[in-house]
Amino acid sequence: KEKEKQERARKAELESSKIVEVTEEEAEAIKAQQENVTTATEKPAVKETVENDTKDKSGEESDDEDSKGKIKPNCGNGADLPNYSWTQTLEEIELRLPFKVNFPVRGRDVICEVERKHIKVGLKGHPPIINCATPKEVKTEETYWTIDDRKTLILTVEKVNKMEWWSQLVTSDPEINTKKVNPENSKLSDLDGETRGMVEKMMFDQQQKQMGKPTSDEQKKQDMLQKFMKQHPEMDFSKAKFS
C-alpha cells in the first residue's frame, strides 16, 4: 500500500510538470491575452496621470490668464522701453527720457506738458516722443522736471490715487504685470499711518486672493465664527450654512 501510494504521488507530479506543446496560433493567442490583461491593468494609472497633468496645466493657465501679453516690471516697478524708462512708487512716477541728439539740451529746447490725464514730451522742432493719454489721473500742480547732464529729461508726477500700481505710463505703452510688482521698492515708510495701513491691507488681500485664501475681512469673520462656536458647544452647527 505504501509503495502504491508513492507511485501515485510520482505519477501526479509527472503529470503536473509536463510541458504542453501548442501550435503557433495558440501561442499568439495566449500572448495577446496576456498583453490585454497587462494593458487593462496599467490604463487607469496612465489615465489618472494624464488627468492630473491636464488639471495642473489648466490651473496654471487660469492663474496666468490675466498676465498674458504683459511684460515683467523693471527693478523700479515700471518698464524699460526703447525711447525711455519709467519707475513708480505708490505715490509718484518718474520718467527718464534721453534725447538722442548731437547737441546739449537746455530747458528752453524742451516741450514738457502734463495735463490731468495726458503727457506730451519732446524737443522743439522735432516730433513729440510722448504724446498720449495716461491710464490714471495725476496732480498737475505737483509735477516738475529737470535736465540731467544736458541730455536726459527727468519728469516726476504725483498720482491722484496713491493706492494702486500703474500698468503703463501712457496708454500706448505695453502693460506691465502689476502682480509682479515688488512692494519693497515702494516707499511705504513715507506714507502716513492711516494710508500705510490701508495700502498694506490692500496688498495683503490681493496676495491672498491670488493664492485662493481668505482676505483679511473674510478671515476675521471666520475667526469670530470659530470663537462663537467654541463658546456655545451645546449648539449644533452641523446643518448650518455659512456664507
Automatic annotation (TrEMBL):
It is found in: Cytoplasm. Residues 79-170 form the CS domain. One of its GO terms (biological process) is protein folding. Residues 44-60, 215-224, 231-243 have a biased composition (Basic and acidic residues). Residues 25-82, 205-243 are annotated as: Disordered. One of its GO terms (cellular component) is cytoplasm. This is Nuclear migration protein nudC. It comes from Ciona intestinalis. The lineage of its organism: Eukaryota, Metazoa, Chordata, Tunicata, Ascidiacea.
